[in-house]
Amino acid sequence: MRYRLTNEQARKFILLKQGLLGDYKYIGKSGTLDYIKEAGCIQYDPIDVCGKNAELVLQSRVKGFKKEMLYDLLYKDRELIDYYDKVMSIFSIHDWKYFKRVRDRYNQTEENHPHLAEMKDEIRNKIKELGYVCSKDFNRDKKVDWNWNRTTLPKAAIELMYFQGELIVHHKKNTIKYYALAKDYIPKEDYETKDPFKTDLEFHKYRVLRRISAIGLLWNKPTEAYLFIHGLKAKEKVLVYESLLKEEKVVEIEIEGIKDIFYALKSDEHLILDVLSGKDFKKRTELIAPLDGFIWDRKLTETIFNYKYKWEIYNKEEDRVYGYYVLPVISGLEFIGRIEVINQKKEKTLLVKNIWFEEHIKLNKFLREEILACLNRFKLFNECHHIDIQTDLLK
Sign (positive/negative) of CA torsion 39, 40, 42, 43? Predict the structure, then answer.
């Protein structure tokens, strides 16, 4: 099946899929879980300027979202888990079984790290004693080469056991991770399930469907949206999409003025039909996380939304065009600019350091009120009492 959409219709579809257009369809703690299941995963990043990335993703979509909701779902209710999907991510604990091939890759590389094996029994015994551990619970005098840097032997061994699936993140205190045995927390039916995929093609199809669901639309082009799907090269992607079309798990999308073909989930067809019917949807103004699945494919965002975004956090200060931690701002069907917001925790104040509007955006009374209302919600999300607006553009 192939649909033809105008650019405006394509934007509406993506935003409806994202839960960023129309009334909030995700509410509270249950809505937090529902959105993550719908997206497949959300990307984790520990940097906290005005909320961590995963929290920022949720605050823009989940009405009444509070940071402790995500923490509870991860470490108290055990409905979610930290592991690798598109890099470090958060997803449903029941998806654990689908990533056995990812864990097996790390089991196959253990022979490259024989010096770590000596620590495993010590780690297991310490977990039996304490219930959970972090690397600080062990003698950290010995250093080893690990991944991209040198680190302590206990930390490397714990991380290897985590990558292999023997350990999970039990909880976190600030940025410190504490680990426990996976078998004690992952439901038995998920933990003991054998690899559900018979071939690499089947596994690749599963991963691609998750990436489409995270963005809304995806195309068969080189993009970071496919990051961490090992073995998925150009030839394999062609086979994946041919198979998904044949199985009617995706539909093709043409967008007016764009030569490339896009793919959407067959299960999202009702949203396409809603858009094509000419329905009206309530427009919202929201702050978007820098690593939001919505904008994983920067080129796709630029092509469909005419918005170019780069996360400048790793740029030297003198090389930044905007700022250290800058969030895209979307209002209605378009990105209107970007904003630098800082949570001054001691002062309980949300500092609005600067805002940059796209060239074609004209700030009027209505748009200003929309942005201020959005910032007020963001203030509550960050548990601040006050807003300090330093830019004259919003005063």
Answer: negative
Taking the model in full, what pTM does it have?
0.95
- Reported as a single tens digit per residue, the pLDDT across 245-301 is 999 999 999 999 999 999 999 999 999 999 999 999 999 999 999 999 999 999 999
Mean pLDDT of all residues belonging to the chain: 95
Do 251 and 271 meet the contact criterion of CB atoms below 8 Å apart?
Answer: no
- In this structure, how many other beta carbons lie within 10 angstroms of the beta carbon of residue 196? 12
Q: How far is CA 122 from the centre of its chain?
A: 34
Looking at residue 87, the DSSP 8-state letter turns out to be E
Residue 102 CA from chain centroid, whole number: 18
Asked if residues 290 and 323 have their Cβ atoms less than 8 Å apart, the reply is no
Write the CB contacts of 22 (distance below 8 Å, at least 6 apart in sequence).
16, 281, 282, 284
State the Cα–Cα distance between residues 210 and 73, nearest whole angstrom: 20
> Looking at this protein, which amino acid is placed at residue 3?
Y
**Which CATH code fits 285-394?**
3.40.630
**Per-residue pLDDT reduced to its tens digit, 74-87:** 999 999 999 999 99
Give the per-residue SS3 of 261-286: EEEEEHHHHHHHHHHHCCCCCCCCEE
Determine the Cα–Cα distance for residues 295 and 293; give it in Å rounded to an integer: 5
**Spatial distance between the Cα atoms of 198 and 241, rounded to a whole number of angstroms:** 18
For CA atoms 294, 295, 299, 305, give the dihedral sign.
positive
User: Which residues, in sequence order, are CB contacts of 246 under 8 Å at separation 6+?
Assistant: none
The three-state (H, E, C) secondary structure of 134-196, written as one string: CHHHCCCCCEEEECCEEEEHHHHHHHHHHHHCCEEEEEEECCEEEEEEHHHCCCHHHHCCCCC
